[in-house]
Amino acid sequence: MNKEEFLEVYRHSMAHVLAKAVIELYGKEVQYAIGPQIDDGCYYDFVLPTAVTQDDFKTIEDKMREIIKRREDWTRKEVSKSEALEMFKNQKFKTELINDLPEDEIITVYYTGEDYVDLCRGPHVENSQELMNVSYQIKSLSGAYWRGDEKRDRLSRIYLYAFPSKDELKHHIKMIQEAMERDHKKIGAQLDLFMFDETAPGMPYWLPRGWKMYQALLKYSREVQERHGYTEIAAPLVNNKKLWLISGHWAHYVNNMFMVPGVSGWLKADAEIPGVLENINEPTQEPKNVKIQAGSVVYNRELEDTMAAKPMNCPNAMMTYKRTNHSYKELPIRYSEYDVLHRKEKSGQMNGLFRVQEFRQDDDHTFVMESQIKEEIADVIAIADEIYSTFGVTYRAEFSTRPEDFMGDIEVWNRAEAALKEILDEKYGEGGYEINEGDGAFYGPKIDLQIKDALGREWQCGTVQLDFQLPHNFGLTYQAQDGSMQMPVVIHRAIYGSLERFIGIIIENFKGVFPFWLSPYQVGIVPIRVEHNEYAKKVEEALMAAGIRVEADYSDNNMKEKIKKFKNYKDPYILVIGDKEAAEGTVSINVRGSNKQIQNVPLDALVAMCKKMNEEHSLELIDSYEAE
């Protein structure tokens, strides 16, 4: 058994031990639902007769240890559906799971000793003795809904860390604590970068400091794309449903789109609508009657004047291309977009900047001839190399091939996959990237770029996707060299991906201590006394003229208070200006992250230092100065 199989077996087994411990502590009336293994352990969902608190964690852990020490046998048994229903007749969640199975399904249960049985496919250990060396600790307690449906039973979910050794558990807990300290939601609030409000769920408010950083990211992206021949467009954020019908999004994505339905008219009198389901995917729920008051607008999203906020930019790029005839001499045509996108998410899925309902992407749609695919994607990879190295993160590539429900000509698919594979082989070497067979989009194969942050966590950000379907749907053509009309291939491409998500990642990666070029404010100016304000304003003007983001405190507050304020915002440079600096035309620099000061720096030298870090997108702060 390899390590991955072992982790799966023992973590899954520990979930059963957790459930058995909870039942022994809280009684047979405990309703136990599901308990899968997860990346760092397992969890189990319960309905409990009394509330569990953090104070109870040790008691549960001790009971689990007692159960493991009994060295009980684990027995697998196959049962019929009727036998399973009888065994779990007092367990409502197990009963529901069993009823969902086909009549002829072979059902397996696992006994831990003789007094605990669970509905489970396995596999599991053969005896609890195998778990003696497992290191575990209850991680947390949270609420959950049965089957993820907020209209169903609310459950208590107990999470458990489980690792093969004490050292691995200790290391993991330390990493989790570090991750909590890096939590972008916490740091974002501390640095006044963004906020959320219940009036716009999952839609961030970008505060002045955060918006400056956001604009710095956009500026850098635009500079890189300009050098690589991209042209930027902007398109309507709300589009008629006709566009989404042509693109196919109406059929595949309609429930994730924010709608402005067409108007059928107004109700003359109160009306009741029967047969309304709160969740279309839950057929067992009881339909309701919904009352609508007289005078209400009657909306109908099937009407022609229905509009929807765009969840992606692709169809707009297709329309932009289609506006005129094109020759092979014009290709590739690269349309980049940073428009606002909206995608509906369930409330339980939203998570700070990582999962939002409103966001921007560094999106691009490039129109190429088939013969240009390889060269164009190689250039995209070069852009990814440059951008990711600027942030000091590494990445790996994943190649996803043709799925079963692919659309288009299989020969075109074969040629496209061969081109992508050749690019990846040349760039990373054979075996230097992961292949996900059958995981491509229905319209074309793709390459996903997984970046690794300071904690070793991986995030999928960049993507390069070939698309043969949208050009077909929109009837896109170009005139080939032989005079015939041919269909272009579209390359969908993003490097940051969602800017919101990328900012969340880099906040945690840098722990809020951003490189100079990315910091919301790069220089804080602290005049020691109000009589130094005049020279301080001259310094501020010189820096601003050079495109440096500056904030100054001209109040008569104590110097230490002013410095502390800028330190709390993690400004890279804090300039302290007094008599000497004003007389000599210099500055004294407090360098972030140290007690180091750079004394007697001429103003023009300071400006040059700051411009250099901005132009080079440096990761490191310049922390010394030597007069020439």
Q: Count of helical segments? A: 18
Structural class: alpha+beta
The profile of the biggest β sheet is: 8 strands, mixed
Helix content: 25-40%
- Structural shape: globular
Walkthrough of the structure:
The protein is 34% helix and 26% strand. A hairpin with a 2-residue loop joins β2 (37-38) and β3 (41-47).
List the helices and strands and how they pair.
Blueprint: H1 3-26, E1 31-32, E2 37-38, E3 41-47, H2 57-69, E4 74-79, H3 81-87, H4 92-99, E5 107-112, E6 116-119, E7 135-145, E8 154-163, H5 166-181, H6 184-190, E9 194-195, E10 205-206, H7 208-227, E11 231-232, E12 238-240, H8 241-247, H9 249-253, E13 259-260, E14 262-266, E15 271-276, E16 288-292, E17 297-300, E18 307-309, H10 314-322, E19 333-337, E20 340-342, E21 358-360, E22 363-368, H11 373-390, E23 394-400, H12 410-428, E24 434-436, E25 446-452, E26 458-467, H13 469-473, E27 478-479, E28 485-486, E29 489-494, H14 499-510, E30 523-527, H15 533-545, E31 550-552, H16 559-568, E32 573-577, H17 579-584, E33 586-591, E34 597-602, H18 603-616
